[in-house]
């Protein structure tokens, strides 16, 4: 009997323990749910102070989450500091970077600050010095499709756009080709081909970029490489509803007004695209001032180009000078020749007239006729002051004796009728 009572008591004790354990677990689950709810609320209302032990637990978790977010942000800043150090080294050395195409891949994207941004949204910002800073956009396939075929706007001058934009010659080590043209481009942070008209809505979507920073050495490098990376994703996913979070961060050394380069982060909503690209803002063999944009040391290609242009200008000027001198000499020679011919003509005419007069005086002199008339020799006439000529006159000293051809050449005409002193 005692054994039966003992067994009964033991079973009742076990049942009580099970019931107690179940109650304890329910309370624990309830506490966890409450804590989770408080975390969400705390994230939404960050400044409220906990009023119970449960709130303190929640506060601890919020602090931890906040710390984690800050740690992530600090990590990104540290990452950019390391990238900037590399960019400064490459740009100071007038280098095209490890790919020789003005960019390098830098692992996975480090996207931040896209919470609340919807598909098609974009945001451009300036830093506290008024320089173009972070540009963000949630890109869509339709924007890409609508931008095909034509430029959607006119590039804007970025802050601190240089007052002079030299024409240079850049010889690319990657291709061996030489670019001839302006040194700087108004470089999009988020391209026209990706964002369309929205890419022209703010000057802060533009930076002063060298030509190779914009398109690289082969037209597919620099910022163009990042753009093509996004374009290739759209080509592989036509008409998709997926989006691409696209972020460009220009990096400056100290207070300089022109960035040493930019970090471009791209991440698609399906995670198939996830990379970071660093773009270098430099020119091979050319030293530039990142405060003013002034070229302080030109490349060998530019020197050769300038020398060639200078030589061409000198030769052109010399040829022009020679041409002018030759033309002047020819004009002078022609003028001298004309004067000489004219003089010879006058001499010849005078000589002819002298000879003619001599002949006239001997063989063809005017002859006096009965009645007081004097007849002109054959081929000659007497020209009156009224520019009429006659063949015989009574007072020859009142007329000019000359050839009929000369008289007519000087405008004289034959008299139609005569008078008592002159006859046609």
Chart the SSEs and their pairings.
Layout: H1 2-44, H2 53-92, E1 103-105, E2 122-126, E3 132-140, H3 141-146, E4 167-171, E5 178-182, E6 184-188, H4 192-195, E7 206-210, H5 211-215, H6 222-236, E8 243-251, E9 261-268, E10 274-280, E11 287-288, E12 295-297, H7 300-364, E13 367-368, E14 374-375, E15 380-383, E16 388-390, E17 392-393, E18 400-403, H8 404-409, E19 413-414, E20 422-423
Parallel strand pairs: 16-19
Antiparallel strand pairs: 1-10, 2-3, 3-8, 4-5, 6-7, 8-9, 9-10, 11-12, 13-14, 14-17, 15-16, 15-18, 17-20
Q: Any key phrases for this structure?
A:
single chain, 424 residues, alpha+beta, Extracellular Endonuclease, Chain A, six-stranded antiparallel sheet, four-stranded antiparallel sheet, 8 helices, disordered N terminus
Shape: rod-shaped
Mean pLDDT: 78
In CATH's first tier, which class of the largest domain applies?
Alpha Beta
Structural class: alpha+beta
Strand residues, percent = 15-25%
Tell me the strand order in the biggest sheet. Answer: 1-10-9-8-3-2
Gap between N and C termini: 192 Å
Quick recap:
Residues 1-19 form the signal peptide. The protein has 424 residues and is α+β, with helices and mostly antiparallel strands.
